[in-house]
Amino acid sequence: DVKVTQSSRYLVKRTGEKVFLECVQDMDHENMFWYRQDPGLGLRLIYFSYDVKMKEKGDIPEGYSVSREKKERFSLILESASTNQTSMYLCASSSPGGLDTIYFGEGSWLTVV
Amino acid sequence: DAKTTQPPSMDCAEGRAANLPCNHSTISGNEYVYWYRQIHSQGPQYIIHGLKNNETNEMASLIITEDRKSSTLILPHATLRDTAVYYCIVRADAGNMLTFGGGTRLMVKP
User: Counting C-beta atoms within 10 Å of the first and last residue's C-beta, which end of chain A has fewer, N or C?
Assistant: First the structure.
């Protein structure tokens, strides 16, 4: 079974804290993605990566950074968490090109207080 | 990628077929139709995809009209566990992004 694993299911952080959300996939996929999902706004792409050490901005990269040091791991970093970053964060992965299916993790619920 | 239109919500009786429609009238020749679903508080789950032929797998069937402007996802025997938001997405073969619209909230009732 394909597997995209997000390290934390629920987190509560304080405003200004640095937050790391980790994602690991076991399918040897080149592409990895970070989305956030908010009520009424659907899924919005934050960053994606198509290779180790490569990254591209998505639709809403402000306030976020990412790290891809190994093929299987893609980290989302909130340098200084703010309350408007309270959301559900979804990691996904796929193979490059073609129509390979995109697989999602279970999601990480982040609350910034 | 082309835009899709889905009804915001539908009900279905347990054990009956659930037919979820999707309109994608601006779909272009290289765009596939994908269906995902999202059960509350979980990540989206892939269901099925197709180009122009009807497709079937262990989860569902996908019927695409001949002009490809609309499609229907069929869950042949809906169960309570099929209660979820179902997303219809069109996606070009050259791209890897997925753009999720509002989806259809399917409620399966006993």
Answer: N
